[in-house]
Amino acid sequence: MDTELLLTFLMVARSGGISAAARALHRSQPTVTERLQKLTQHVGEPLTMRSGRGIRLTPAGEALLATAQRLRDVVDEFDDIVLRRQRLQNGVLRIAATNTVANYFLPQCLVAFQRQFPDVELQLRGGIIDWSDISLSDWDLFFLEGEADLEELPSYYMVTPWLHDEIMTIFPEGHPLLAQDDLSLESLMSYPIIWRERASGIRRSVEQVFRDAHLMPKQSIEVTGVEAVGAAVDAGLGIGFVTAAALRRRKDWRVNARRLPAPHGIQWTLYMARPQPIYQSHTIQAFLQFLDADAVHTSDTAAALPR
Q1: What is the share, in percent, of the chain residues with pLDDT greater than 70?
Q2: Residue limits of the HTH lysR-type domain (predicted)?
Q3: 175 vs 295, which has greater pLDDT?
Q4: Is the pLDDT of residue 304 over 80?
Q5: Full-model pTM
Q6: Interatomic CA distance for residues 198 and 126, integer angstroms
Q7: CA dist 121 to 90, 115, 260, Å?
Q8: Which helix (H) or strand (E) holds 293?
Q9: Over the stretch 34-80, which tens digit does the pLDDT of each residue have?
Q10: How far apart are CA 134 and CA 300, in angstroms?
Q11: What range defines the domain where residue 207 resides?
Q12: 171 with 252, same domain?
């Protein structure tokens, strides 16, 4: 049944007549009369009868009144939900990200987004090493350190570059190599290297640079997470590699940074997996627009660090 028939009947009952109902609904009197007649035919008995200049409900009309009111309440609730979601007064944004992205790239953006849209619930899961450990259907956006890190994405998702940054080589304070003016990757071969876990995008990028230079470090220590790399280098265990964004925020690390190989260093790209536009909620659309407006395509930290 066309719900408009029942809602029109409710307005006629509330207003006490066809003319008043037509004005309230912004419809013509013939339209309201036609709808009332169709509903009457559907029920199979009269719903209203004339009473002076207005109308009153028959027993059948009285029986339908409560149902029509419940329908009106449901429609109003539906309209309210849609409006609140369109205005971002409701909704959930679920983000899954690696350790580096969750700790050093997303927090400030998420705080600013939440300030602008305080009614949106934010859910962030960081520190993901193995993407097969999570249920992809539980999350909306994925921030990756490699373009092909997520192999089982739904067909309606797409992976696009999100942000470009630089990987810096960090040394403990007082390391003998810091005295050299012509540092190279080959200079590192005689010293222990602090590596991230094997799934790390930073590690994969650095290893590729070593392979391209036909070099293979022999001494190594493996830790998990960018914080562990910084702490290990701070303690003097070896030389490590961290994103420039981490250096900006971890001023407590007692390390010295260099750009290797000179002069361009190691550039890397972070990626985002998101639904295609037709599948994006209002919340996702707003956050993606927020990211575009707040984007930092190249870390400004790297430019300020020693070459």
Answers
A1: 92
A2: 1-58
A3: 175
A4: no
A5: 0.70
A6: 17
A7: 8, 12, 41
A8: helix 282-294
A9: 999 999 999 999 999 988 878 889 999 999 999 999 998 898 888 77
A10: 33
A11: 163-265
A12: yes
Q: What is the pLDDT of residues 2-25, one digit of tens each?
A: 899 999 999 999 998 999 999 999
pLDDT value at residue 300: 46
Q: Tell me what the mean pLDDT of segment 146-159 comes to.
A: 88
Same structural domain for residues 78 and 227? no
Q: Quick check: is 303 in a domain?
A: no
* Shared-domain flag, residues 197 and 208: yes
**How much of the chain is helix, strand and coil, in % rounded to 5?**
45, 20, 30
SS3 61: helix
Answer yes or no: is 304 within a domain: no
- What does the DSSP 8-state code read for residue 253? S
SS3 115: helix
**How many CB atoms sit inside 10 A of residue 272's CB?**
19
Phi-psi domain of 292 (left: phi exceeds 0; alpha: psi -120 through 50; beta: other): alpha
Short-list 60, 55, 22, CA closest to 42? 60
Question: In Å, what is the CA distance from 176 to each residue of 87, 163, 235, 242, 298?
Answer: 58, 34, 15, 20, 30
Can you name the residues that pair with 181 across neighbouring β-strands?
Answer: none
Residue 96 belongs to some domain of the structure: yes
